[in-house]
Design goal:
Helix content is 30%, strand content 19%. The protein contains eight helices and 15 strands. The strands form four sheets. The protein has a six-stranded parallel beta sheet. The chain has a five-stranded parallel beta sheet with strand order 7-6-8-9-12, with helices on both faces. Strands 2-3 form a two-stranded antiparallel ribbon. The longest helix is centred in the N-terminal third of the chain and has 13 residues. It is globular, with a radius of gyration of 19 Å.
Length: 288
């Protein structure tokens, strides 16, 4: 039996493996999102991507899924939010890092000093809100780390990041993923580069993507909802279901991505999803 979404303050949908696979929308995804919009339900689409919500929206549009960027939250946006909140003395610049309009953030006594070892999306989201660090001799609050194939993670820039971390800058990892799939096969993830830098610099990263609580808490702050009053729909037991359960969300596992039904046989009762569906078509008519 599937849930009645009217009992929740917000419905949260994982993207890769839940809403889409590669460049194709999965069964029921478009219909479910349209239903949530028509019924005026609060919702958001989530991803551990190192891209900005705006870039994710452009990708979704090519699949026939039309969303406003305010309904998308990525690990890269969460990392930006974390840096703005953690290192802005007044803390009032921490709103809207995932929005394409960043020109009106509140003034602070001193802007965060940041070294970008991640993506162009992070550069775009934080430009004008932080002071960019360029050399190892400058004061630095945070080094944002993405995957080693990102345009800002060249070998020379990794050396600069290492020196800044050894001098006390905080390492902010976009997500803890060891690897991620690409058309070329498995690629080194943000977590892998953080492990390399952390070992060399004796530094422990703060991860901002799923399944870390930071990701879900900052998203719920944006939506003005209580995590315990939300339901998350995802395909990954670890990053989606277990991550959401840590912040007391209800969870729905869809079998269109990473997890298979047989995988549930070895999961303890407290980490089991609350509902399991074959795909999102089972949820289209369950929204009350």
């Amino acid at each position: 039996m599937t849930p009645d979404f009217s009992q929740f303050q917000a419905v949260l949908l994982d993207l890769d493996g839940t809403v889409y696979h590669e460049e194709h929308a999965l069964p029921g995804a478009i219909a479910l999102i349209r239903r949530l919009i028509v019924e005026g339900r609060k919702y958001a689409c989530l991803s551990n991507s190192t891209a900005s919500p705006l870039r994710i929206v452009e990708r979704l549009s090519r699949m026939g899924v039309e969303l406003d960027p305010t309904h998308v939250y990525t690990a890269a946006a969460a990392a930006c939010d974390y840096v703005l909140q953690q290192f802005s003395p007044s803390g009032n610049a921490a709103s809207g890092a995932s929005s394409p309009d960043l020109s009106t953030a509140g003034a602070t006594r001193r802007r965060p000093r940041v070294y970008n070892l991640s993506t162009e999306s992070v550069q775009e989201m934080l430009d004008g809100l932080v002071d960019w660090v360029h050399t190892p001799g400058e004061p630095c609050d945070a080094v944002i780390v993405g995957t080693p194939t990102n345009v800002h993670a060249t070998e020379d820039r990794q050396r600069v990041a290492l020196q800044l971390l050894r001098k006390g800058a905080e390492m902010v990892g976009i997500c803890a993923d060891r690897v991620y799939p690409s058309p070329r096969g498995l690629e080194f993830g943000s977590g892998a580069l953080c492990a390399l830098l952390g070992y060399a610099a004796n530094s422990t990263p703060t991860f901002c993507g799923k399944p870390n609580a930071i990701f879900f808490e900052k998203l719920c702050d944006r939506l003005a909802v209580d995590p315990a009053a939300c339901v998350l729909v995802g395909d990954n037991l670890e990053s989606d279901v277990h991550g959401a359960k840590r912040v007391r969300m209800k969870t729905i596992l869809t079998l269109t991505g990473v997890t298979r039904r047989r995988d549930l046989l070895h999961v303890p009762a407290e980490l089991q999803p609350d509902w399991v569906v074959e795909d999102l078509t089972e949820l289209v008519d369950s929204t009350g």
